[in-house]
Write a structure and sequence with these properties.
Blueprint: H1 3-19, H2 23-33, H3 49-66, H4 70-76
Helix pairs in contact: 1-2, 1-4, 2-3
Length: 77
Amino acid sequence: MSTIDEKELQKARLWKALDSNNLQTVILAARELFPGECIGYNLAGEQTIPDYIEELKDRIRDYCKEKKSEEVYGKMK
């Protein structure tokens, strides 16, 4: 697979995550962007699943904005 195909797949996964309310979908996209971090949901915590999903989506948006990934960030506006 070429680098262009990989970038297109990553963009598609990010778009899907940003449009999703599925915890697993959003976690997988966040793990791809932040491979050095332990990203998961602690069911014993005080944060609700919808709040955690939105927090991860915000981090993904911030990352795309920071990296000036117009292909992804442009869709979020």
